[in-house]
Design a protein that fits this description.
Layout lengths: L20 H7 L6 E5 L18 H12 L9 E2 L9 H10 L6 E4 L2 H4 L16 H16 L3 E8 L12 H12 L6 E5 L7 H10 L2 E2 L1 E3 L6 H5 L9 E6 L7 H8 L10 H17 L2 E6 L7 H13 L3
Parallel strand pairs: 1-9, 2-3, 3-4, 4-5, 5-6, 7-8, 8-9
Helix pairs in contact: 3-5, 6-7, 10-11
């Protein structure tokens, strides 16, 4: 590659990391309870922002987490591929080998467990909130091969059409039965994709089991600030915020508009205001805050994280 000089043996010397001086200065002022990370990490467009110039998709596939953790702003990462199928033990071990100690990851749970209906057929899913399947297919392999880096497990409940919504009280009851069966000692979080399910009864059952409600910034959910304002919304000793896409927007449209995710395209000042309130609310509660940011928020999740860090470390 043009930006990589030849070493003494004729091979390509590794390219230098980006200049992280500003990020190191920011991190020194970010509150200790806040852990920033991105939703996945395999984006060559972050070359020169997070990764050395010229980093390829192949390199990111082979050692992307190792390169990712060099950015001082990142103290967690969202693992999304686990939503589509459980990650094999060998891959989990490979991930673990690339991570430093004390680096917990936010992992989405397999959709077979979190979807009330199958996305293609829309037929009822018999494995919805199946505790045994979660333990066997997800928790067991993660504990065995990735345990030191297991952060919150996110149960993302797939969006439902109006006729598919459960009757009032049905979801809280099902969640109660589910979490009653799960092993203690792990951090669990539930993410809604249907605003109709965001009810006091839902929050109450999460609080009963110390499970977090994921405060998300997503196309069909109330704004982050509106969720934060709900009484009793901080249901666990930790908090997960997943900043994904502005309400009212569509994922595929934003993906096409923002690629290759190397710049801020559509600033979201209202989100920054809400985020300041979230950081203060979690500080008062003494809760660790995991913040996972997607490229679809503004165009580049690392640059959004940098902006959020500036906002919470700049005096008003």
């Amino acid at each position: 590659m043009a930006d990589r000089q030849l070493d003494l043996f004729g091979g390509a010397a590794p390219a230098a990391d980006p200049d992280f001086a500003e990020d190191r200065a920011l991190v020194a002022r970010v509150p200790d309870h806040v852990r920033f990370g991105t939703s996945s990490w395999t984006f060559p467009g972050w070359s020169g922002i997070v990764y050395p110039l010229g980093t390829t998709a192949r390199e990111l596939g082979e050692r992307g987490l190792e390169l990712y953790t060099r950015c001082p702003l990142f103290r967690t990462v969202g693992i999304d591929r686990s939503y589509y199928r459980p990650i094999e033990r060998d891959d989990l071990r490979r991930y673990a080998e690339q991570l430093p100690g004390g680096f917990p990851c936010v992992m989405k749970v397999w959709s077979e467990i979190t979807s009330r209906v199958h996305p293609s057929t829309r037929s009822p899913n018999p494995h919805f909130l199946d505790a045994s399947l979660f333990e066997d297919a997800v928790l067991g392999p993660v504990t065995e091969a990735f345990g030191a880096h297991a952060g919150p497990f996110v149960f993302e409940l797939a969006p439902l059409r109006d006729l598919e919504l459960p009757a009032p009280g049905e979801l809280p009851a099902a969640l109660g039965r589910f979490f009653e069966r799960l092993p203690r000692g792990f951090r669990y979080a539930v993410e809604l994709r249907s605003r109709e399910l965001f009810t006091p009864a839902y929050l109450a059952v999460l609080a009963r089991f110390g499970v977090a409600h994921v405060l998300n910034f997503w196309e069909r959910m109330p704004a982050l600030g509106a969720q934060l304002a709900a009484p009793g919304v901080l249901t666990a000793p930790f908090v997960v915020a997943r900043l994904l896409i502005p309400p009212g927007e569509r994922y595929e449209e934003k993906k096409a508009e923002y690629a290759p995710f190397d710049r801020i395209v559509d600033p979201q000042p209202g989100l920054y205001d809400d985020f300041v309130r979230l950081v203060e609310a979690t500080r008062r509660r003494g809760a660790e805050l995991f913040v996972i940011v997607n490229n679809k928020v503004e165009g580049s999740s690392p640059l959004t994280i940098r902006g959020l860090a500036r906002r919470i470390t700049t005096p008003p």
